[in-house]
Amino acid sequence: MGKFYLRCFGLLLLLASCGETEEAALDPGLDYQPLGIGKFWEYEVEETMYFGESDVETDTFYYKDQIASDYINAVGEQVFLFVREKSFDRQSWQPESKYTYRISEGALVKNSENQNKVTLVFPPLEGKEWDANIFISDQEDTYQLELLQDYKLGSLAFSPAVKVLQHAEDDLITLRDNRYEIFAKEVGLVESYYEVLTYCSRNDCLGQQIVDSGRSTHLKLIDNG
Q1: Cα–chain-centroid distance for residue 212?
Q2: Domain segments of the chain: what residues?
């Protein structure tokens, strides 16, 4: 009789475990970018502009992104309008730009300057790849996902998070192209890094990694709600 109860108890544990696994498997992970009117994200931004070999400007400022409204598009998808404001002191804010997010067929699609880019796919899986340019051109632009259990950004900690590796290229001669974004569960975009530079390619500087032109922009979340 004792063995019978042990077997039943073991079966119940197995069924419970299967139920939890199935529930976890069914989690689409849409809350890696929460969407809802009124939600906001504030970022500290460090930006460096390269205009020539000795002409460089670095600036620090702040962005505040807030979901101002939503609407239903022609195919029945809910579209969220983000309004971005810029400040140098976090007190006085000026309009900067607008963009939208929508979830379409398991993908988070961002529309900025009339271009649709697939920034994230659901559910987030380790090593998953997709063409971010599938809506806008025939030129493929492959993004890849990396799962991060714990991610620290200054004094903030996020768990779990995902890294979208957009580009990681540096030929040390003509071009450096490093871009990625970090999304945290129940928070959204917490970090964005953009660095696209061209090196001087004249005979007297070829291979010395002297930056001739380009831009580096680093966004780091400091507040959200």
Answers
A1: 28
A2: 1-27, 33-224
